[in-house]
Design goal:
The chain has a two-stranded antiparallel sheet with strand order 1-4. Strands 2-3 form a two-stranded antiparallel sheet. The N and C termini lie far apart (about 55 Å). It has helices at about 25-45, 75-115, 125-135, 140-165, 170-195, 205-225, 225-240, and strands spanning about 45-50, 55-60, 60-65, 65-70. The chain has 7 helices and 4 strands. By secondary structure, it is mainly α.
């Protein structure tokens, strides 16, 4: 009996074969998004205080000094990139990027912990410094993971929900609305878990920490909104699969 099954031959026999890389900008944005998260979660381990010599109150709220963490200048970029992903590629694609960032944060924490536990060479004199900079603090890791996951999901869900109602109109409303909800959820969760780790021990300092973090991150996204507009417009014009 003749075997009629088709046999698969190697294409381009004698030549090296490679898969095609999709021309979408999605992969590059996700890579930057993930890198921003990883860097932010390391720099956030430092407590930062501005105007530490001042003691200013507005009613029950302390305005100065301003207490925050070392990631205050970078973390808003993660939400800007999250907005770009949600606006151009939708919730499912953004959720995929969020999960990838979540997994990367876990992997980073595990690798830092393993590196610290490995026996030091006799000539290595920086073990204490390594532990200080990248030492895995369970509460800080939990704070970063929980705040990031909840905040980014809320940010994307709100932006997409508003877009379903407004279509291509009122981009500013989507960006601001999603930022307010996402940043508040993220900041409240992160600060509630991480405050004690970076040295915040009073309710006054905690409220200051939450309010400053929320207002700064929201203001930062509002200030760079013209840039976000341009990036979104650029991607919408150049992504062949984007349909208006």
């Amino acid at each position: 009996m003749t075997d009629t099954r088709e046999t698969k031959e190697e294409p381009h026999s004698g030549q090296a074969v490679f898969a095609r890389v999709n021309g979408s900008y999605y992969a590059a944005i996700v890579a930057l998004f993930t890198a921003t998260l990883l860097i932010s979660n390391v720099t956030a381990s430092k407590g930062v205080s501005f105007f530490s010599g001042s003691d200013v109150f507005l009613g029950p709220f302390q305005i100065l000094p301003i207490n925050t963490d070392g990631a205050f200048f970078l973390f808003p970029l993660a939400y800007i990139l999250g907005d770009v992903l949600s606006e151009v590629y939708g919730f499912k694609a953004t959720r995929r990027a969020i999960y990838l960032g979540f997994a990367s944060l876990i992997l980073t924490s595990v690798c830092f912990w393993i590196a610290i536990q490995l026996p030091s060479a006799s000539f290595y004199e920086n073990q204490q410094s390594l532990e200080t900079v990248v030492g895995v603090v369970p509460r800080l890791v939990l704070a970063g993971l929980a705040g990031y996951l909840v905040g980014q999901m809320l940010n994307s869900l709100v932006l997409v929900a508003i877009k379903e109602r407004t279509k291509e109109k009122h981009l500013w409303a989507r960006l601001i609305g999603s930022t307010i909800v996402g940043e508040f959820g993220d900041t409240l969760i992160f600060c509630s878990i991480a405050a004690g780790v970076i040295g915040i021990s009073t309710w006054t300092d905690f409220i200051n920490y939450v309010i400053v973090g929320f207002l700064w991150k929201t203001l930062a996204e509002v200030l760079v909104m013209p840039i976000t507009y341009r990036v979104i417009a650029y991607l919408k014009k150049r992504e062949p699969t984007y349909a208006v």
